[in-house]
Design brief:
CATH topology of the largest domain: Nucleotidyltransferase, domain 5
Largest sheet: 6 strands, mixed
Number of helices: 20
Strand content: 15-25%
Helix content: 25-40%
CATH superfamily of the largest domain: ATPase, nucleotide binding domain
CATH architecture of the largest domain: 2-Layer Sandwich
Structural class: alpha+beta
């Protein structure tokens, strides 16, 4: 029975691996072909057998080649790179199974295959790694894949954090900054970590879920292999046919992948095919062959632009944390493509000389996941299901990581869990794996034993637990071993994105996102966030299921606050109705929101309504949405170009040109990759980046106008205050309160101008306008209320009333007060009149919260 998880899986885009803790060390469990890694490929044959790994990959290669003969590419029953569509509605049809498979179902087959490599025990608990920039939707899909694979307890861990665990256990220097550069088959992650005497903290992460070895393969196809075929054979008709061109590119991609691997270790490589390897004829009836000799200079031309994107992401990550490359103690390479000499030279030239190659880039993530797994307790459900009550049952408590030389371990005998003959006396002993230290026997019959376990520095310390009876006979016990990592601690996952809720901004009259305090990017998980200051936009009646409050939750990048939801990923719409409310909740009632997120980013949500002293707990069920449609993306790209052109002449030309060029590239990319879901998702993510940059440039261009308007509004308000001071004979006007308010506004105006904060300026302009209106009302004896009342009376028949008779009565009552000169009494009546109007704007809100 294991009390710690001890197993880690690197579920990769192109290759996967599993590792287990054995005698204190993470050990890669070999595949059935005796390899460290398994191709993340699944195939279904005509007998309806399920093949995973190398056999499936070989069938996939054959299927792609057969497609060149004229067979439809869609007839392939072999699938790979489905990790890129995790968390989407993408499906993969197998004609042999007559079934559509989701990404998580195919991933589950890979997980089950990896689990089958463990033959000596049933694995029920697992740590599965995910890219650092995976969204909560993608992580939920990964958890579902784990459950489909039969795991009862699943924890997720960011891939670069896992790699840092593998590196850190043997690292000599355990202080300073590390940068994990994880360039995998389909994703890229960069993680900045800070270490202080072995205590590791994730400071920041960045990445690209659509940048990896796959992009290198495609670039080699498009820039080396296809040009060679075009120059030596007549294939224009194939190239011009979108479907045939894609079949050809897919068939020769395997040659590009092999060349990429070879060029990681050699100065030159010959891409060579035999006659018949490409079974199709060109327009002259000739069967093409490939014979291309490439060197490192050729490779640099092709792959450098792709690697540069990852290098730039890493440099930006350092920049926003106010660091330079020479501040890094180590740059840790992870992922097969990082073997590339081209990349390693680029990193040394552009980032730091401290590029560390001491860990195996292919297995670091799986080994680190196993190390991390050795620090996590197995769930009680799994422990109870694996308990053997015929053995001595122990409760062993200890810290699984330590930076000291000694760790205290408590051992308690669980009599209530034991069956059969129970010895009168029971002793336990801890023996370190190297046999160089043991605790000696400790009696545990009626008390808990406290053992000072001596640790080896900078190592994973395995301890065997031995149990004895009073005569020194060995007894079988559970658990019978523990593991303590010495020299490094931490490595917990952090939030890769801000968690925000969508609310209605009253000032700008639009729906915007507000980050939940405590759930900002890079917060260590588990975490709790609280959102206050929100109010309801509609009245909620008790027992009424159709009276609703809708609270959309989003994941967003930096600067999420006050942005449109288009820039972020939708997680879930929390819907609260009046069904369980104890009493009426009036419109404008306060709501306090609490969101809790665990290590695997599973969420719980609660809303507290102070007026009713009532709390609503709502389960957050992660929603999977389809990839954006091509037409929608075309429209959004067109809108982005118009926005960019609208700020020309005001925004810095170089910055704006870069954004517009990137948007134009996305338009071209949509023509090329818009047919696939992962292609459209990638385009959307990149479009979001450009839209955020456009927003920033637009805000800078509108600032001069806003600054002038803000100053003018404030100067006008000051002029009004001077007039009131000079003629204040109205006891209702509290000048001390007004002066304090004006001084507060003055400070905010100074701050907004100093920071050039457009959003703050707009809010202040609105506040000043409201204060100006109220002051003028006070000075003029509420004449404006009477004027507004008459305007409503004149337009009575054009207004859509809830109750016309009631509205007419209230207006007549107000007009009577005005005629009698009792203008100060009009305001309460005016409020009641406005409440009788059908609130079209409120209908637009759809029950959203307001701030």
């Amino acid at each position: 029975m294991r009390t710690k998880i001890d197993y880690g899986i690197d579920l990769g885009t192109t290759n996967s691996a599993i590792a287990r803790m054995e005698n204190g060390n993470p050990v890669i469990k070999k595949s059935d072909t005796l390899k460290d890694t398994l191709p993340s490929c699944v195939s279904f044959n005509k007998k309806q057998d399920i093949l995973v790994g190398d056999p499936a990959f070989n069938i996939l290669k054959n299927d792609k080649v057969k497609a060149l003969k004229g067979s439809s590419q869609s007839m392939s029953n072999s699938f790979i790179e489905f990790k890129r569509t995790m968390g989407t509605l993408s499906s993969y049809f197998s004609s042999n199974m007559n079934k559509e498979y989701t990404s998580e179902e195919l991933s589950a087959e890979v997980l089950m295959k990896l689990k089958s490599f463990i033959v000596d025990e049933n694995v029920q608990s697992i740590v599965i790694t995910v890219p650092a920039k995976f969204t909560v939707v993608q992580k939920e899909a990964t958890l579902r894949a784990g459950k489909l694979a039969g795991f009862k307890h699943i924890e997720l861990l960011n891939e670069p954090v896992a790699a840092s665990m593998a590196y850190g256990i043997d690292a000599k220097n355990k202080d300073g900054f590390w940068l994990v550069f994880d360039f995998g088959g389909g994703t890229f992650d960069a993680a900045l970590l800070k270490l202080e005497e072995g205590v590791m903290t994730v400071k920041d992460t960045e990445g690209d879920n659509f940048l990896g070895g796959k992009n290198i393969d495609e670039a080699m196809v498009d820039q080396l292999i296809i040009p060679y075929l075009k120059s030596n054979y007549s294939i224009d008709a194939i190239i011009e046919d979108e479907s045939k061109n894609e079949i050809l590119r897919s068939a020769v991609k395997f040659y590009a992948e092999e060349a990429k691997i070879q060029m990681s270790f050699k100065d030159a490589h010959n891409i060579l095919t035999d006659l018949g390897d490409l079974p199709f004829e060109d327009e002259n009836g000739e069967e093409p062959c490939i014979d291309i000799c490439i060197n490192q200079s050729d490779m640099e031309t092709v792959v450098a632009p792709i690697f540069q994107k990852a290098v730039d992401i890493s440099k930006e990550l350092l920049k926003r944390n106010h660091l330079k490359g020479n501040d890094l103690n180590a740059l840790i390479l992870v992922g097969g493509p990082t073997y590339s000499p081209v990349l390693r030279k680029m990193l040394k030239d552009q980032v730091t000389d401290n590029v560390d190659t001491s860990v195996d880039p292919m297995t670091a993530v799986a080994k680190g996941a196993a190390l991390f797994a050795s620090t996590l307790s197995v769930s009680e459900e799994v422990i109870e299901s694996t308990r053997d009550n015929t053995k001595v049952q122990l409760d062993v408590q200890y810290n699984a990581t330590s930076v000291s030389d000694v760790e205290y371990v408590t051992v308690k005998y669980l009599k209530e869990k034991a069956e059969g003959n129970i010895p009168d006396q029971i002793f336990v002993e801890l023996v370190r794996g190297d046999k160089a230290w043991s605790s000696g026997k400790k009696m545990i019959n009626d008390k808990t034993a406290l053992i000072e376990a001596q640790l080896k520095n900078g190592a994973s310390n395995a301890f065997e637990i031995l149990a004895y009876d009073g005569q020194g006979n060995k007894l079988e016990c559970q658990p019978n071993h523990i593991n303590i990592l010495q020299g490094i601690t931490g490595g917990n996952t952090t939030l890769p994105y801000n968690i925000a809720i969508e609310i209605r901004d009253k000032i700008r009259e639009k729906d915007v996102l507000h980050t939940v305090k405590g759930l900002e990017r890079n917060k260590e998980l588990p975490a709790t966030g609280v959102a206050t200051g929100c109010t309801t936009s509609e009245t909620i009646r008790p027992g009424m299921i159709n009276d609703k409050i809708v609270i959309p939750i989003y994941q967003g990048a930096d600067n999420t606050d006050n942005t449109t939801s288009l820039y972020s990923t939708h997680v879930y719409d929390v819907i609260i109705n009046g069904e369980s409310f104890p009493a009426l909740l009036p419109k404008g009632s306060e709501v306090e929101i609490t969101i809790k997120i665990d290590r695997s980013e599973q969420m719980t949500f609660s809303a507290f309504f102070p007026l009713l002293n009532h709390t609503e707990d709502v389960p957050v069920e992660i929603q999977i949405k389809p990839a954006p449609e091509r037409d929608w993306l075309i429209n959004e790209i067109s809108k982005a170009k118009k926005t960019g052109n609208s700020v020309k002449g005001n925004a810095p030309k170089s910055q704006l040109d870069k954004v517009l060029n990137n948007i134009n590239e996305l338009e071209l990319q949509l023509e090329k990759d818009g047919g696939s879901e992962d292609g459209r998702i990638k385009i959307l993510e990149n479009l979001r980046k450009e839209l955020r940059e456009l927003d920033r440039l637009s805000a800078e261009t509108e600032w001069p106008v806003l600054e002038k308007q803000l100053k003018d509004e404030f100067y006008e308000l000051e002029d009004l205050i001077r007039k009131i001071r000079a003629n204040n004979d109205d006891e209702d006007i509290n000048m001390d309160k007004i002066n304090a308010h004006i001084e507060d506004i003055r400070k905010k105006v100074d701050h907004a101008i100093r920071e050039k904060n457009s959003i703050e300026a707009k809010e202040l302009i609105s506040d000043i306008g409201s204060l100006d209106f109220n002051l003028r009302n006070a000075v003029t004896g509420n004449a404006l209320d009477a004027q507004y009342l008459r305007e409503i009376d004149n337009g009575f028949n054009s207004i859509n009333w809830k109750d016309r008779n009631k509205a007419r009565q209230l207006i007549n009552q107000g007009l009577k007060l005005a005629s009698e000169g009792r203008t100060k009494e009009i305001r309460p009546v005016l409020v009641q009149i406005i409440e009788q109007m059908n609130d079209d704007e409120a209908d637009k809100l759809g029950g959203k919260l307001v701030r």
